[in-house]
Amino acid sequence: MFGYNNKVLIIDVSSKSWEWEDLAEDVVRNFIGGSGLGAYLLYKHCPTGVDPLSHANPLIFCASPLVGSRLTTTSKFAVVSKSPQTGFIGDSLSSSSIALSIKGVGADAVVITGASKEWVSLVVDKTGVKFNDGSNLLGTTTSVTERSLTDTLGRGYDTACIGPAGENLVRFASISNDGGRQAGRTGNGAVMGSKKIKAISFKGHTKVPSFDEKALSNIRIDLNHKSLGAATEKYRTLGTMANLSVFERLKILPTGNFRNQSNTDFQNISGEAIHAEEKVSTSHCANCTIGCEKLVTIPNSGSKKVRLEYQSLFAMGPLVGISDRETILKSSKFCDEAGMDTISAGSTCAWFMECMQKGLIPESWLKLLPKYDNEEDFFAQLLTSIAERSGIGDILAEGSARVSEEIGLGSDEFAMHVKGLEMPGYEPRSLKTMALGFAITPRGACHNRTSGYEADLSGSVDRFGVDNRRSEVAVSGEDFTAVLDSLVWCKFLRKAFDDFYSDSAEAYNLMTGLDITPAELKVCGERINNLKKLFNIREGWRRCDDTLPHRILNEPLPDGVMPGVVLSQEELDTMVEGYYVCRGWTKDGLIPSSKMCELGLDSLLVN
Amino acid sequence: MAINLTVELFGNSRVITGQKLINLWFSKSEVDISDVIQELGQRFPMLDGKVLDSSTKSLLSSYALNLNGVGFKDAAQIELADGDSILILPSQAGG
Q1: Helix H segments across A317-431?
Q2: Which CATH number does the domain housing residue B85 bear?
Q3: Quick one: pLDDT at residue A382?
Q4: How far, rounded to the nearest angstrom, does the alpha carbon of residue A330 sit from its chain's CA centroid?
């Protein structure tokens, strides 16, 4: 096949050995690449019931057929493992040059199994896999690690690494690449740390040929043009931080651990204010025309810059009730350098701060608290202690779900997570389609996998109401996203297509020489989502896991454009059960054998 | 009867104009969105081609309308009343 290397590189860090495995055509036809192929490889390589932080949990890097096509936004890859936060599938996307290098070493995916006894820094190039000593890099931040390896290895190597948080097995540690881009969610950095892999560097030496380069070139020109149009205007101008002022006005900006009772004015940290008052520059991923990344120079820090986007702005600010811009920028930068997911870090701190306000902290833990001058200082010190696993941070590094279970005293009722993954910055009580998306997505509270906010914020549904259409919207959004994340296109390009499935099938076929139809591609999305669910069922998923935090289901929104709006358990159940019906699953959310056969999962998973 | 309206600008529309809120006053009893867009275009010509199309009196597709922070509606569906707030915000919801 064109477009693929047709190979998976399997690395065993226990024995310091590697081998190449063939990637069959029927696998890529059914699971494409990126997060879809990653889900397939996880199902295949992850033994049932393993501890996510044990040697047996595979860590998988997946490129995709469009990597190397030079089509805009396609230099992306997925990182997949069993999540140490949820115990279910953990998949996360990142982007830029390293995607090209992964494919350039001759692999469509790299599966890392086992665990090293000593810290290693892996190097993959045309000579094979080297298991270099990684101990000299211990304790270094993500940017220092990356720079150090560039200096040592020379030009052409691209590195993915963990920071101190990953080394210390913080359950929400991220993996960093290409100067601070993050595979941020679900704790893949902790999985990498559990294998004692500080970094993995790739240097490509081959280029995968496309089936029809000339025709692909025409698509490239067309998409480049569309990517600079109205469909991406927000991302190109202010970036996603433009969300903050809009969300505050619509009262969908969660504040104070989703209590939404804050009287704080967050206009000071709006995207518009930051652009007007700070030095902001734009950065692009490799082969991307959009340039959504906004690098903000942090005041009073020399010339340090932070790659700022809405979710970090939210999690380091309103979520913890902080509106001081400098604190937020520094905290966001700290998380990137320590290699921690800002959403889970912020949410765990927000939960802990509420526990303190309510006097729920056990006596024995109080002596573990850092000394601090004010709320901003306290938050900064909490983040540091988590990354270092020192003092109270050693406890909080387990995430809000686990720690709230340990404390008890009702604190689990305001631990804002689903399946163990903390919630991003969308208020589900007044975004009902998003609420359903949070509840049912296999990786936990995730806004990206259904993009339910899109329906709520476009007027195609009543964002305050509950009706049967939500289920269809969630299914269709989830399948769409599975294809998007498997080819892989950037989400910010999604509105630029004339017809997503037709345009994607055309690009895929020109790259690979296959003859997949738009309808078949759509079924791939359904198949991938069923596979993710199947993995979760195998790992112990229960119907009660598809839910939302107690606070969301029991506390009405206190103010805003619709004060008193609620999302009841009954409303959520109606939407979730409707979703199962739309998926063709049983009323308990299980996948019937007829659906498995229909999607070919019964035979595809045999081998 | 006159109508007072507030237009709230978000995203690049706020950056371009340097304005968060704009108060509009119409000396007639029935006002629709095209009247609002026309007035905005006259006051802030720099919005033309970037946020709105003054020739069609409509927003560009990169922007959406919201009435009073509640519902998202197409321009034709919006019935304006005295005291209403019209939000002009980016139509791309993600991030």
Answers
A1: 325-338, 342-357, 363-366, 375-388, 393-396, 400-407
A2: 3.10.20.30
A3: 98
A4: 21
Task: Search chain B and give the residue with CA nearest A230.
Answer: B62
Across the interface, of B10, B61, B62, the residue whose CB is closest to A246 is B10
SS3 A509: helix
A218-421, what's its fold?
A: 1.10.569
pLDDT reported for residue A607 = 58
- Asked if A249's CB is within 8 angstroms of B93's CB, the reply is no
Q: Is B54 within the bounds of a domain?
A: yes
A interface residues, B as partner, C-beta within 8 Å: 229-235, 237-243, 245-246, 249-251, 271-272, 275-276, 309-311, 451, 453-454, 457-459, 462-463, 491-492, 494-495, 560-562
The count of domains in chain B is 1
CATH topology of domain A7-202: Aldehyde Ferredoxin Oxidoreductase;  A, domain 1 (3.60.9)
On the CB side of A194, CA atoms within 13 Å amount to 27
In the prediction, which pLDDT does B78 show? 87
Encoding tokens for residue A33?
């690449």
Are the Cβ atoms of A238 and B72 closer than 8 angstroms? no
Nearest residue of B to residue A292 by CA position? Answer: B95
Does pTM top 0.90 for this prediction? Answer: yes
- Using alpha carbons, list the distances in angstroms from residue A24 to A27, A32, A37, A318, A604: 5, 11, 11, 48, 11
A272 with B72: Cβ contact below 8 A = no
Q: Which of B6, B8, B10, B16 is the best substitution to test chain A (most A C-beta atoms within 10 A)?
A: B10
* Closest residue to A230, CB basis, from B60, B73, B94: B60
How many CB pairs below 8 Å do chains A and B form together? Answer: 92
Residue B95 lies in a domain: no
Residue B72 lies in a domain: yes
Find, in chain B, the residue whose alpha carbon is nearest to that of A237: B12
> What domain range is B33 assigned to?
3-90
Structure tokens at A332: 């966001």
Regions of chain A short of the pLDDT cut 70: 261-263, 607
What is the rounded average pLDDT of the residues B26-55? 95
Contact list in B for residue A458 (CB cut-off 8 A) is 64, 72, 91, 93
CA angle, A254 then A260 then A261, to 5°: 155
Looking at chain A, the domain(s) classified CATH 1.10.599.10 span: 426-604
- Across the interface, whether the CB atoms of A458 and B71 are under 8 A apart is answered no
Confidence of residue B76 (pLDDT cuts 50, 70, 90): confident
CATH (one of 1.10.599.10, 2.60.40.10, 3.40.50.800, 3.40.50.1820) for A426-604: 1.10.599.10
A240:B70 CB<8 A: no
Q: b/e for A288-313, b at 16 or more Cβ within 10 A?
A: bbbbbbbbbebeeeeeebbbbbbbbb
Longest alpha-carbon distance in chain B: 43
Give me the interface pTM, i.e. the ipTM.
0.96
pLDDT (mean) for B79-94? 94
Q: Residue B10's closest chain A neighbor by CA?
A: A246
Flag if B11 and A451 touch (Cβ within 8 Å): no
Point out the residue among B8, B62, B90 whose CB comes nearest to the CB of A249: B8
Which tokens belong to B8? Answer: 């709230």
Contact indicator for A472, A562 with CB cutoff of 8 Å:
no
